[in-house]
């Protein structure tokens, strides 16, 4: 797996390890014939794939050109909200309010710095980070790759994992094991966050918390986010009129959502 922070890479890794197996591989192997991440680091942009290697024996001995990256992508509005809550190695002036802080009240973008294993990289804004990082996999003709929406992995886990597994030459387990079934393992950290992500999506469906974004960030997101990728992955922009109405209601102003 590969992907930005908060894009479901650990969820994918867990589901693959539990359900996808490769003929001729030792079933006792921890990774069941697949790696936890690409050898250059799952969060590392692919432009650095030949400039950085994870310091672990399975990655140091791995033939890079034989690797099939599975890049995870997530709706940018949901991704920005999660990154405000769990920034990991992403640093910018997000604070505790006015998430996701794409632009200031003066309409100036807030720069974002990401600490990758290969070093720090600065982006014009958090929206530019989503664009540039995902675009490198989207445009790449230098190596084969799969790009998977985390939303498909959550709502159609068995079908999505099966397509990934068979594409890479693996075979599915006789019975599919979901993250909920594996909750007994007592895993924490990223895995607990992944289960919370699954529970939230399945419980609330298309529920969005985007109206809390400042209107200036809504306007900036529409201007900055990569429209080709938004269309390709069928990600929709929120209706600004509805957002404005909901914001008025949250502020106690009169208004009715149509």
Write the layout of secondary structure elements.
Blueprint: E1 2-3, H1 9-19, E2 20-21, H2 57-60, E3 70-73, H3 76-85, E4 90-91, E5 112-116, E6 119-123, H4 126-139, E7 146-149, H5 150-155, H6 157-167, E8 171-172, H7 190-204, H8 215-224, H9 227-232, H10 240-250
Parallel strand pairs: 1-3, 3-7
Antiparallel strand pairs: 2-8, 4-5, 5-6
Briefly characterize the structure.
This protein is of the alpha/beta class and 258 residues long.
Give short descriptive properties of this protein.
3-stranded parallel sheet; 3-stranded antiparallel sheet; alpha/beta; globular; single chain; 10 helices; 258 residues
The largest β sheet comes out as:
3 strands, parallel
- Which strand-content bin applies to the residues? 5-15%
Helix/strand order, N-terminal first? EHEHEHEEEHEHHEHHHH
User: Distance between termini?
Assistant: 41 Å
**Helical amount among residues, as a percent range?**
25-40%
Could you report the average pLDDT, rounded to the nearest whole number?
85
Structural class: alpha/beta
- State the shape: globular
Radius of gyration over all CA atoms, rounded: 19 Å
Number of strands: 8
Quaternary form = single chain
Physical arrangement of strands within the biggest beta sheet = 1-3-7
Question: Can you characterise this structure?
Answer:
- The chain is α/β, with parallel strands linked by helices and 258 residues long.
- 38% of the residues lie in helices and 10% in strands.
- It is built from 10 helices and 8 strands.
- The chain has helices at 9-19, 57-60, 76-85, 126-139, 150-155, 157-167, 190-204, 215-224, 227-232, 240-250, and strands at 2-3, 20-21, 70-73, 90-91, 112-116, 119-123, 146-149, 171-172.
- The strands form 3 sheets. The chain has a 3-stranded parallel β-sheet.
- A hairpin with a 2-residue loop joins β5 (112-116) and β6 (119-123).
- α1 packs across α6.
- The protein is globular, with a radius of gyration of 19 Å.
- The termini are far apart.
- Mean pLDDT is 85; it is low at 182-189 and 203-207.
């Amino acid at each position: 797996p590969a992907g930005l922070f908060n894009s479901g890479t650990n969820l994918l890794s867990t589901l693959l390890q539990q359900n996808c197996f490769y003929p001729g591989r030792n079933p006792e192997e921890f990774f069941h014939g697949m790696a936890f991440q690409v050898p250059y680091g799952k969060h590392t942009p692919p432009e650095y794939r030949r400039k950085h290697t994870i310091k672990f024996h399975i990655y140091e001995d791995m033939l890079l050109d034989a690797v099939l990256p599975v890049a995870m992508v997530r709706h940018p509005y949901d991704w920005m909200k999660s990154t405000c809550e769990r920034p990991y190695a992403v640093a910018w002036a997000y604070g505790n309010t006015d998430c996701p802080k794409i632009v200031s009240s003066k309409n100036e973008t807030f720069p974002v710095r990401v600490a990758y294993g290969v070093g720090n990289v600065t982006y014009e804004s958090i929206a530019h980070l989503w664009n540039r990082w995902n675009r490198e996999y989207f445009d790449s003709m230098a190596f084969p790759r799969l790009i998977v929406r985390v939303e498909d992995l959550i709502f159609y886990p068995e079908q999505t994992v099966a397509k990934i597994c068979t594409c890479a030459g693996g075979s599915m387990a006789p019975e599919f094991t979901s993250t909920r079934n594996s909750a007994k393992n007592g895993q924490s950290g990223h895995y607990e966050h992944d289960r919370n992500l699954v529970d939230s999506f399945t419980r609330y469906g298309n529920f969005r918390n985007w109206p809390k974004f400042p209107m200036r960030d809504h306007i900036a997101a529409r201007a900055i986010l990569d429209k080709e990728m938004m269309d390709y992955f069928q990600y929709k922009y929120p209706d600004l009129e509805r957002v404005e109405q909901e914001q008025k209601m949250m502020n106690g102003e009169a208004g009715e959502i149509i």
